[in-house]
From TrEMBL:
UniProt protein name: Selenocysteine lyase/Cysteine desulfurase
Keyword Magnesium part of the UniProt annotation: no
Residues of the Aminotransferase class V domain: 28-402
Keywords: Lyase, Pyridoxal phosphate
Amino acid sequence: MTVLPLDPQRIRALFPAFSEPSLSGQAFFENAGGSYTAQATLDILDRYYRATKVQPYGVYAASEEAGRLMDHAYERLARPLNVSSDWIHIGPSSSANTYVLGNAFGAWLKPGDAIVVTNQDHEANTGNWRRLAHRGIEVREWKVDTETARLSLPALDALLDNKVKLVAVPHCSNIVGDINPVADVAERAHAVGAVLAVDGVSYAPHGLPDLRGLGADIYFFSAYKTYGPHQGIMAIRPELARALPNQGHYFNDTKLRYRLTPAGPDHAQIAATAGIVDYLERVADLAPATLDGSDPFRRAHTAMRAQEIALARPLLDYLRTRNDIRLIGPSDPELRAPTISILAGEPGIDIAPRLAHHGVMASGGNFYAVRLLESLGIDPVNHGVLRLSFVHYTSPEEIQQLIRALDAEL
């Protein structure tokens, strides 16, 4: 393995899970379902519950501090995304956020308008949009190549015209792992006057993107998959957020953050999302000074991706030697996130318990990407895939532990 840009020991020291006795010797390969929580997040959460667990934005000191901590989180989250804080909305989950967005767009779009969705995505960024067909909206499907599981830009071009008002695409699939060319998709969507909604849930754990450079009008991801609390973070272009019909209480219509997140927010967890940004700054501090990056967050992003590419290489090399295993998505680690799904001769959910005997924590199933698996000829109910997902805090030794386990059980 090539030299890693980040020292695994120093990175892992920032996560309490790696010093938890019950997890000792356990290699965590289900990060796509939720990452370990950074100490920076837990510190804020603990402080909030101890000192400011009151109704925020009131007139007494504890309430004022509670509101200040929440406002601070919105401001902090905006920085790595390279947007202003009025882009940031926080709801209970990404699935809940897109459900609300679907309702808002349903009232905003007109019968005869068209939208484009993919069959590569998690159901949260396809099902909620497809329901708009009941309101007279034309739904066009951007389909993956059935051999490679990838999306092609020429296939998108064939779907776009001036009727299209929304394009919904994953930054990368939670099964394929292929990193889609979002900036190119944005250019095409905007050229026909469409809004671009990007599901970043499976990409954001590997580095928060520069949204201005990406060109997305909506970008959402899960805080609990990016080393934070269980919340859904949604960045929306403020002009669009104001144009969409209010989904909250009528008397909150002028309050931008209340319009598209109608559920009562978890105040403590909103405050604790600032810990994600604190953690990314620590990653930047630990990254070599030679790494590219115009600010700490771009440096952290570069370091995390370089770390994951180096870690993924021996695993992908191993999988290429196994003619009895089908790798879903590209075999080049530079083209994909380290969310690696494989198809073996038996259901993934049956293989995972055997890997657990080797101290490997993984899982199998369809992972809410039922349409994708069906398009690839994989039974999403009775078979599914085995998903092996990791991030930059995974160690080289754990990669070898996984390879040994696969060798023994497949």
